[in-house]
Amino acid sequence: MTDSPEAGQIVLKVRGLRVLLHAEAGPLPAVDGVDFDLRAGRTLALVGESGAGKSLTSLAIMRLAGVGAHGGGVSLEGQVHLDTGQDVVELLGAPLAQVQALRGRALAMVFQEPMTSLNPVFRVGWQIAEGLVRHEGLTQRQAEARALELMQLVGIADAAARQRAYPHELSGGMRQRVMIAMALACRPRLLIADEPTTALDVTVQAQVLALMRRLQREMGTALLFITHDLGVVAQMADEVAVMYAGRIVEHADVHTLFAAPRHPYTAGLLRSIPSVAGRATGALPEPIPGAMPRLGRWPAGCAFQPRCARADAARCGVRLPALELASPGHQVRCVRHGEPEAPL
Ligand SMILES: Nc1ncnc2c1ncn2[C@@H]1O[C@H](COP(=O)(O)OP(=O)(O)OP(=O)(O)O)[C@@H](O)[C@H]1O
Ligand code: SF4
Ligand SMILES: [Mg+2]
After folding, report:
1. In the chain, is it the N or the C terminus that has fewer CB atoms within a 10 Å radius of its CB?
2. Considering every ligand atom, which ligand is closest to the CA of 321?
């Protein structure tokens, strides 16, 4: 078992991450130059519309892009440094066997659909225990006792009986709790959760999110949390990175991002969610007009330009805007971010 990391220590450093999908016409960068740091005990939410590249970013970090459903014709560029507790490993350049050995131990992932990770033919208690035997060197009996504790910890009632259940015998919320127990069993430095509660009903979702947040804080785990639900972001995140067309367009702490977004896309996303205040006044949410261009059809310059009310063809359609510091800790990829007087 690795020691808990010190609060504030950088656990994950992503630099220039690119995910290229090889199509007949040539490689398409579905993720194109993503940079961020994630510290121990902190939660970074990755948000954006469908197809923005959120899942591919997380799968690339796990070296799972190009595996299974994402199979074939994928290449990765850039650097992903993970502090494992023993040393810092550059995951993209490391031998795959080394990364596989770190999965479940230093880095773990929870997916939207637990059945993609749970094996239908093994009892859930055994599946939690298996990682503990493999990574922590526990005996089968010790691991099963620890698995029972973990099931209780994640709020599974009657855990002793449920330990012997097969995945299909549990509800969706219970399966998701089993996934979280498995993911946290070896106290990973980094936990990646991709839409982990989207399939659950609202009450169960709130319980599972609160549980993840508590365990993550207690263990000092760095959490990369992917969601399209800004309500969930407000509940979970310390900081938010907004993705559009394969790139981060804004990154700030959660309060700044909600109160003072500087990128027109972020402002549009916030206007598109129904607010409690809006419900009281009868104001309707405003969807962002148009749709994100398909992969490979991104315009020159700023990819948001065709949908942006502030676009200025001479400035926005030529060069890709850089991700610049608008204020300490607040990065924005927009040539007009320094013009506070213009409406977003
Ligand atoms: N294996 C693949 N083959 C071809 N295209 C792919 C593959 N995997 C992802 N893509 C494409 O890459 C882009 C980014 O996909 P990704 O799954 O990362 O999006 P996302 O932001 O997670 O979206 P969602 O919110 O729908 O989950 C999309 O255009 C998607 O269609
Ligand atoms: S760079 Fe131009 S098109 Fe892009 S978000 Fe800013 S104003 Fe809009
Ligand atoms: Mg996704």
Report:
1. N
2. 2
Mean pLDDT of the chain: 90
Which residue, judged by its Cα, is nearest atom 18 of ligand 1? 53
| Domain ranges, residue 260 | 254-332
Q: pTM higher than 0.85 for the full model? A: yes
pLDDT tens digit string along 231-252? 899 999 999 999 999 999 999 9
Which pLDDT does position 1 carry in this prediction? 46
In a domain, 68, yes or no: yes
**C-alpha span between 206 and 222 (Å, rounded):** 20
Per-residue pLDDT tens over the stretch 86-132: 999 999 999 999 999 999 889 999 987 777 779 999 999 999 999 89
Domain boundary among the residues 237, 264, 288 is at: 237
Tell me the CA–centroid distance for residue 201 and ligand 3, in Å: 19
Give me the CATH number covering residue 26: 3.40.50.300
Which ligand 2 atom minimizes the distance to the CA of 303?
4
What separation in angstroms does the CA of 221 have from each of 155, 175, 276, 302?
A: 19, 21, 32, 35
Nearest-atom index, ligand 2, CA of 321: 1
Same-domain check for residues 299 and 163? no
Based on the fold, state whether residues 42 and 132 are members of the same structural domain.
yes
Which of the listed residues 50, 61, 232 should we mutate to test ligand 1's pocket, taking the one with most ligand atoms within 8 A of CB?
50
Residues 261, 249: Cα–Cα separation, whole Å: 11
Average pLDDT over residues 171-194: 91
Q: Tell me which ligand sits closest to the C-alpha of residue 56.
A: 1
The answer to whether position 242 is within a domain reads no
Between the CA of 49 and the centroid of ligand 3 the distance, in Å, is: 9
Query: What is the 3-class SS of 78-140, one letter each residue?
Result: EEEEEECCCCEEECCCCCHHHHHHHECCCEEEECCCHHHCCCCCCCHHHHHHHHHHHHHCCCH
Residue 111 located in a structural domain: yes
